[in-house]
Write a structure and sequence with these properties.
CATH class: Alpha Beta
Strand content: 5-15%
Helix content: 40-55%
Radius of gyration: 18 Å
Bound molecules: adenosine-5'-diphosphate
Distance between the termini: 19 Å
Order of helices and strands: EHEHHHHEEHHHEH
Amino acid sequence: MIIGLTGGIGSGKSTVAKMFLKFDGVVLYHADEEAKRLMNNDADLREQLCATFGDETYTAEGILNRQHLASIVFKDASQLAKLNAIVHPAVHRHLQHFIASHQEATYILYENAILFENGSSGFCDRIITVTAPIATRIERVMQRDQCSAEDVQNRMDKQWAENKKILQSNYIINNQDLTKTAEQVLRIHNFLTTKPN
Ligand code: ADP
């Protein structure tokens, strides 16, 4: 069973994912982390990225130069679309391997900030959306990433509005008070693992 875990930047997806991981047999696939890892380690991907965005896409030490990529894709939607067209299929293939090698899992939590935006909600059996007020989310990300409110807002503008995600989700977690969040996580885990009579 694949459980999609999504929510806007700063809603608390990673915080919620950690809570789910405390339950036996739950495994996490964090799309963003895996994409970063693949961009650094996958030779085909590296070749395609260099061919499209130039050799400066990687540092002399062979590490992905995120500033270079960001400077190209964040000001030009067509370049972002090119990047996604290269990276998403590679992550998707990797996810399929991951699923195949975790057949024994209670369920796979598939964390992806842009689950709906990139169309990968389609292969999830259930979808959880994490929510929090916009002002709270901005504040959290400013603290976490040491950036300005404007930077956060720019990143938010590229994501779907929360209520659009909520309408297409099976479960919503309102993540403000962490104790209440943990209660909601437990309730959802119980729903997901209770077999109907
Ligand atoms: P996301 O993965 O959705 O971007 P994170 O889980 O990284 O969000 O949370 C963003 C920041 O806010 C992190 O520093 C995290 O520790 C903090 N945070 C998340 N949820 C809460 C909460 N309920 N109360 C206080 N801080 C929180």
